[in-house]
Amino acid sequence: MASFGNMAKIPELRRRILVTLALIGVFRLGVHIPCPGIDAGALARFFEAQQGTLFDVFNVFSGGALQRFSIFALGIMPYISASIILQLLTVVFPHLENLRKEGEMGQRKITQYTRYLTVVLSAIQGFGIASWLESVEAGGASSIVLNPGMGFKVMTVITLASGTSFLMWLGEQMTERGIGNGISLIIFAGIVAGLPSAMVSTFELAKAGQLGPLGVLGILAFALVVIYGIIYFEQSQRRIPVQYAKRVVGRRMYQGQSTHLPLKLNMSGVIPPIFASSLLMFPATLAQFSNVSWMNVITDQLHPAGWIYNVVMVGLIIFFCYFYTAVQFNPDDVAENMKKFGGYVPGIRPGKNTAQYIERVVERITLVGSLYLAAVCVIPVLLQGQVGVTFYFGGTSLLIVVGVALDTVAQIESHLVSHHYDGFLGQKGGRMRGRRG
């Protein structure tokens, strides 16, 4: 409670938290603004008949916007898909690789390319959704689209692409002016917003006798165990001991010291499950929005509770764990910086040998981290098919919620520590105060 009180005392932190909450409120408000030209009643009946299918996964990641077919129906997934494509292309095209190495200016250029690609993907998906909605009947021979035609398609493309672009801007504003990662917080807010209704539906199943009291307690206990496991593994580190020798800088001598290089077990965070889910949704989306028979077979095979879906999910999670770690962490740079400042790993020669040693350690812990992520995402999905647990209690949802919450709390804590550190030194307005100041 003292930490919460300290949060309110720091003007910058208080402002960042209020900005983040306000932008999340804007996102949740937009979820309830429907696209024009849709029969809301027919759309609701259609989604009632589609419960337990891939549409539930789409709906979770859009924060319930798809079920209402709001202006944010596509969610932030086109932006994530564009980010995946750009990061994969950095390995293929040297120009993108050079931009990534140029620092902040290069990253701005890559971000600009990502925005353009997001708009293109949103327009393609929007056109596919509009064409698909015109061919869907919600029961009773009632059409979901009030006035089918090219006008409806163009209006839907513009609306959905604009909504995704606005969400992309909201996420960037959260990251820059708020607290935490904006894109992750948008997904976080969408999942958390659906948790109350998911809990109510679970207790209604128990009330109707379809799920016994022991089943409800088992679900809650299992969710707590998964949350505990996520926190345990997300906080786990492999600490490599590092020794710094005595060195002279100018006229000052620095004594040698012993420290460590902390390597997180899961360096990629919640990015691999989000990327894997996004890639699995893309072909399934195309299959849902087409009338081709062989693509409908793909839709049936990519059911969240099916073994093909989960096997591919595990493979993609492991791949993105290694890929994202390789993009974010460079052992050669770490070894070079250690050598520059007189640091070395005991028993390992500085330079190339140190880089190879760190790389081997990173590969091993990444394997453990990727298997942990795959287990958390897949095992609950397989079990929920047996007990009828809603997708909101699945491992991917819990992993995103807990992971984003941990990252956000870590940033808040860094602000608190920085504030107390300045206060301890007695700094005010950038000047050092004396004892009696």
Give an account of the 3D structure.
α2 (11-31) runs antiparallel to α9 (150-177), α6 crosses α7 and α10 crosses α17. The chain has 17 helices and seven strands. With 437 residues, the chain is mainly alpha-helical. β6 and β7 form a beta hairpin. The protein has helices spanning 2-9, 11-31, 40-49, 54-61, 65-68, 77-92, 94-101, 104-134, 150-177, 182-207, 213-234, 271-288, 293-301, 307-328, 331-340, 352-387, 395-425; strands at 237-244, 247-249, 252-254, 257-264, 343-344, 427-428, 431-432. A three-stranded antiparallel beta sheet has the order 4-1-5.
Q: Layout of SSEs?
A:
Layout: H1 2-9, H2 11-31, H3 40-49, H4 54-61, H5 65-68, H6 77-92, H7 94-101, H8 104-134, H9 150-177, H10 182-207, H11 213-234, E1 237-244, E2 247-249, E3 252-254, E4 257-264, H12 271-288, H13 293-301, H14 307-328, H15 331-340, E5 343-344, H16 352-387, H17 395-425, E6 427-428, E7 431-432
Q: Concise description?
A:
By secondary structure, this protein is mainly alpha-helical. The chain is built from 17 helices and seven strands.
Overall shape? globular
Radius of gyration equals 25 Å
Strand order of the largest sheet: 4-1-5
User: What is the helix content?
Assistant: over 70%
| Unreliably modeled segments | 421-437
SS-derived structural category = mainly alpha
Q: How far apart, in Å, are the first and last alpha carbons?
A: 30 Å
Kindly estimate the percentage of residues that lie in beta strands according to DSSP.
5-15%
Mean pLDDT: 78
Given the structure, what is the number of helices?
17
Largest sheet: 3 strands, antiparallel
Tell me how many strands there are.
Answer: 7
- Give helix and strand order, one letter per element, not per position: HHHHHHHHHHHEEEEHHHHEHHEE
